[in-house]
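Consider a protein example.
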Amino acid sequence: MRILLGSVVCLLSVVSARTAIMPPPWADPASNPCAAQPRGWQLLYWPADGKCYKIFQIGAPCPETMELAPAAGDGTTAECRCPPGTAQSPRDALCHPIFTRASCTKGQFFAPVPVAPGKSSSRKRWGICRDPEPCAEQSEIYWPRDDKCYPRLSRGPCPRGELLVTGEDGLAICSCSTIGELSRYHWLGGNGGCHEHYTKGPCSEPGELFLPGGTCGCNSQLPHYHESSGMCYQLGSVGPCPQGHHFVVTSDPRSSQEDVVRARCVCKSGHVLYKDGVCYRLHTRGPCEDGHMLINSTTCVPVPCKRGRLYFPQEKTCYKIGTRGPCPNGQIVLYDYNVRPSLDGISYNGVCGCTNVLRDTGRCVTDDSDDCESTPGMVMINRICYKLYTQGPCSAGEWLVAQRMPRSLSLWQDGEPRKPKARCECRPGYKRIVETSNEAADELLESNSLISSNGCQPPAVSLAKFLNDNVKLRIV
């Protein structure tokens, strides 16, 4: 009995030791003199004045808007840096919230400068003013946090009860109001909030949608109406459909023969209809036996890839994850993150992509300047590979063009090849707004001889302004 009791005590001691909370590095008095004080694990030593300060406090001894934090390297010394969710602007040296207007001109947003892969983040997390990316549709709004466009007055990336609109600073915001245009989307019952029309919205009854006029209901004249069930479902949702389908309006010839356009149940993208009536995602197990995957609507084949490799249908070959494989320069083999394993099963399909993507160009962030500048039409600026004749790091109305080099200069200087340089110039037909240089771009990119400005004005801007001020359109 004593032996058994001793074993139990020993086991509990081991478990307790394994589950003990490890103190942070700055809680060691040997490296942080402040740690010896009461509640010293919340204090950091500042060598400049020999005093102790509370960790993560904003302001003194740090500059305005910066916080005192453990250094990224050893975690024992103190440093000043921008708080999470902010970055330092070269315009005023202050930390501003990212993806907001901050100190930028109207219509621009403050974005973090990406850190090249393999490089540890510096003490200064820099940010720069950027223009929103153009959207394919005029009715869409660009959301910088995920680099996507969403329909205006839709929920988009907003929390429940808010809709996407353009704010006073010209940037997208999530909002709700009982006055103005948002009042038409406001729900008066329950907890209120603004909801997109023709969606489930605040409605609780099955088969009802939130309709214009602030009511929940269903109408047989809507394309959302499902005849078999007599209910309405949100377009693009699963609705009344079987697994792997979604409820959408299609260009089915049968629709033109009907008096009312109807949504139908069709297979989702990347899925095929199997003989059991269910849509399965390609290159998953689907209806196949263990160890097999579905390659078309009728055929299952043994999984051709070893562990750690993914299948590329066009090459009919498997490539190791994380290698370049068949991908373009600067990209690697990755999992297809559009697949949801809980619904679709494990996917053996590989895709090309990169772990560090530059928002403005869609290219991978890289630190290999030789690899970048050896590619025709590309130039390296601040460890970021940009494509010439795109906006890149330039201001609105500008594009990145090659810096012209006089013929008298040799291509080689001091035994080293001259690296290609680039400059920001107005796009054809655009006119320079201000001839002074952009301070942020000058300070951040000075070493790359990038010449920028405050932007260029399109030729039709005066006409557009006249029409906007003088022509009133009535929406029927």
Observations:
- Residues 2-18 form the longest helix (17 residues).
- The chain has a mean pLDDT of 76.
